[in-house]
Amino acid sequence: MVAAMAAVLVLLAGCAGVRPLPAAIPAPTAVPTPAPTAAPTPDATAEPVPMAVSQLVPPSPIPSPTAVVRAPAPAPRPERRPTAAPTPASQPPVIIGRGSPPVQAQPARVVSDNWSGYVAQGGGFWQVSGSWTEPSVRCTAASAESVFWVGLGGYPGYPLYQAGSGAFCRNGVPIHALWYELLNPGNAAPLMALVQINPGDLISAAITLRSGAGGGQVHLVDETTGYTRDVAFTPAAGSLGSAEWIVEATSHGGTVSTLADFGTVSLAGCSANLGADGVAAWPATQLTELSLSDRSGGRAEPGAVRSSAGGGFSVSYLGA
Fold it and tell me: What angle do CA 226, 231, 234 make, to 5 degrees?
């Protein structure tokens, strides 16, 4: 994941089984405020609208009053042309630290700054799916993150289409949510939060590609609460060269976040092209096993691929 995520995820109105976050506390005023009027009742049937994570702002503490000190006006400086900030897609989706040559009859093993799991390569991937139970997360830093997803493309470059769940720690508090991200070359949309979820919820995710406008589809389900969401999009192609099942320490502008401690997450039903290419049956020479070692010392490593439950594996947090 590469798009910027600067703030906390919150509950969107109308989502079943969702716990709203407290509203921001109003700042004190010098005069009495009038009695609040009754707020209109929200439409309980309204469909939640995705919001970019960068649009979700947590409540801010009220600052202590301070004396106003007027500093002398600074001397004028020569005007500088602003430099355009790089788009999220300017950074590679998976940051490779180092790799090792493939071992016969075993997947290639690669160390990455931000991904852990398995990548299948070979081309012709137009569908990917998987499921897992959302793990409890311990925040290893005030803004640590751990996300779990399936994806198409992105190894090693764009486009990359991802859908899944995860925990985003803000001020040391993990907030779990379903999300998706659609990254096209030169046109990277921000990560979109759908709904807040809980540890222990059974999550399933799938992405399907079809050429043409609206031909792509993200399919996300929280089977514990019954929440389902389908999102249509226009893919860059009708098939891509890789499919992924990944645990990620998200990156922001090329800087990898601290990996939150997720314990162990077990992914099941890891398949592509509607089950025709299960990860367990994929040739080892076309699989890449990714171990995560971030710049803050966080590590995560996948276990061996299982043949049961439609093909799957576990990823474990190994600490610093």
Answer: 160
Cα 280 from Cα 294, distance rounded (Å) = 27
Q: Which two tokens stand for residue 113?
A: 């700054």
**Could you report the per-residue pLDDT of 3-39, keeping only the tens digit for each?**
434 343 333 333 344 444 333 334 444 444 444 544 4
Torsion sign, CA atoms 165, 236, 6, 258: positive
Total residue count of the chain as it appears in this document: 320
113-167 confidence digits (pLDDT tens)? 999 999 999 889 999 999 999 999 999 999 999 999 999 999 999 999 999 999 9
Query: What does the pLDDT read at residue 73?
Result: 55
- Which residues have a Cβ under 8 Å from the Cβ of 73 and sit 6 or more positions away? none
CA-nearest of 270, 309, 275, 267 to 287 is 270
99 vs 91: CA distance, rounded Å: 19
Cα–Cα dist 291/111, whole Å: 5
How far is residue 240 from each of residues 90, 127, 128, 152, measured CA to CA in Å? Answer: 19, 9, 11, 6
The answer to whether residues 258 and 83 touch, using CB atoms and an 8 Å cutoff, is: no
> What does the alpha-carbon distance between residue 48 and residue 218 come to, in Å, rounded to a whole number?
15
132 beta partners? 203, 267
DSSP assignment of 236-298, as one string?
A: SSS-EEEEEEEEE--EETTEEPPBPB--EEEEEEEEETTTTEETTTS-GGGEEEEEEE-TTS-
